[in-house]
Amino acid sequence: MRRAIWLSVALALVIAYPLLFSTPFQQRLGALVLLYAIAASAWNIVGGYAGQVSVGHVVFFGCGAYAAMAVYHHLQLSPLVGIPVGIVVAVGIAAVIGVPTLRLSGHYFSMATIAVAELARLIVINIEFLGAAVGLSGPPVPRNVFDVSFISALPYYYLFLIILIITLGITWWMTESRMGFYLRAIRDSERAARSLGAPASRTKLYAFMLSAGFTSVAGALYAMMFGFVDPESGLGILLSVKMLIMAALGGAGLLFGPLVGAAILVPLEEISNNWLGGKGAGLTFVLYGAIIVLIARFQPGGLLELVYRLVAKFRKAPEEVAAQGDKRAP
Amino acid sequence: MKFKHMLGLLSAAAMSLALTSGALAQQTVKIGAIFPFSGNAASAGNHAKAAIEVAMDIINNDHPELGDFPLAKGAGLPGLGGAKVEVVFADNQGSPATGQNQALRLITEEKVVALTGAYQSGVTLTVSQITEKYGIPLVNGESVAAGLTERGFKWFFRTTPVASDFARDYYDFLTDMKAAGAKVDSVALVHDNTEYGTSVANTITAAFKAKGMANIIDVAYPANATDIQSQVLQLKEKKPDVVIMITYTSDAILFAKTMQAQDYKPPMLLADDAGYSDPSFLKAAGNISVGAFNRSSWSVGKPGSPTAIIAKMYKDKSGDEMDDTAGRQMTGFLVLMEAINRAGSTDPAKIQAALKATDLKPDQLVLGYKGVKFDEKGQNILASGFIIQLQDGQNYVAVWPKATAEKPPVMPYKGW
Fold first, then answer.
1. Which of A227, A261, B150, B313 qualifies as a cystine partner to A246, CB 3.0-4.6 A?
2. What is the model's pTM?
């Protein structure tokens, strides 16, 4: 009950944010937080809950981004049509690469996903249909509202918020289902889970495909907002790392972890760039890196985990700690 | 009671301060400049910053030694009552998304009246979408992707020559060389598979074929190659009269060394700027590339000329020699400022109108363009370049066109 109250307060704040902080830059910052939260939450399904640390998720992001721009570029359709196309392609690719790579354990899986992502980038650089090295751009001037090209960030903000709620809703439903229990069992010990009859390979693959689908939606939304995708921005490995860091910072394997991570890292990156970027010394990334190092050193479970722990301590309710404990990151 | 009076007085003082600072702010013209200050292209961004700071110095301070160079005489912009120009720099981190975020911030938070930048073509593309939506002029001096001016934008202006301009220059140069007795019947295009390499090669091929030069050999190689023996062998076999090199620095060095190792010298080697203009190429392979022709829009000019003085100001600021890229960025910025001065206003629509009416002559520019005049797409139709030659293995000299040449071209390619 108390949880429901907290959730509705938080939701009300999120809905009110762009009205309280109403300059164009603040609204855009809010939209960016939600956009990266969608991507990081999608990554969290397989990276956090299933404990399979994928560093190749940018492939699925790229599927969505390229699909949205390609349907406009080649067929003059609304980039929105690209969302289902991107999902189908991303889930298909996830199935094809998931079968062999998910057999690998630990860092071998991470390495294989990096290889896939780099391969995808190099292939796309040579595909004329996808704009090769030049990239694809969206509608230069919006023809109608379905081109999703707005001056204000408000429409993006609420569109991203709806998609984020859907992503988190499905993730929550998954964690409460049989699949969620299988995934946590696999994360803690795959061998033990298998010996107890959990269908480990299949469950991991389903999680991978689900995660790929949502990541692709994030990619499509990104391309619509910025109106452009090229191999570096749509398939660059740094984007995968960003998703991973956001989820880890907030709390991998916690429902709201990626959102918290995005809400800290995105403003940090943008605002530090506003302050320091123009000086020409690249100080932005120094600050960014320092904060990541501090968190990795002192709070490796993620900030949200720290909050849960403090709340539990404050309430002195041990059963609450236990309830949160089993959702904690490894 | 007394305290309240004091408070009233204090707030009145504060208000008048705020008002005067507002009045002062009107006397500066705020321009946004988006460049890569971190990431792969950070060095280019910092050179761009130095170039723009030199341009600001020219505008904001009195520079009688520059003669009739636009905005040099007197301090500030005469068209706006001597207003000073202030530039807010922003880092695009080499990312189209960051570039767009920064453009939005510069327009809405910093209230800049116009923008320049953003180096990488992809970033310029996303930045121009924001300037177009907000109706703020963007003058770009350096991004060469052809598509940028093909989108029907009304607030985007580009001063740099693009691939089709280079192709025209190369064709004219080769025609002149033919008239002087050189054989230029077959041309090999050596290019990498990046956006730059493929797009420039495609444009040159199309332009040459349109003029009836059909014998073109395409030699592609992967960028950042470790071995290009087979490409050099291919050249050796086909014996083209002219080899055009469209390569970045590390590949250019590798080609020069492999050509020496295989003892292959084309009769004429013509480079498309990029790697062959890089100071590190000249250090590593200049003495084995003697006689190479290259393209540039920058020439330092005679001692005491405005370009020579500006080159010195740039060197004092950045520590490096002025080059084509810095010159192009400086030109973009100066063209924007000249238009604002002529507009006599910081109203974006008036600046846009002034940009459309821009008509600068060669002696009013840092670079060797035939002038600056925009077509309805926002592309400078008078952009062009020189052909320069590495005659001593260390420094390029301008050899074409004749009007601006320092020395006549020397044939054939000497190599080492």
1. A261
2. 0.84
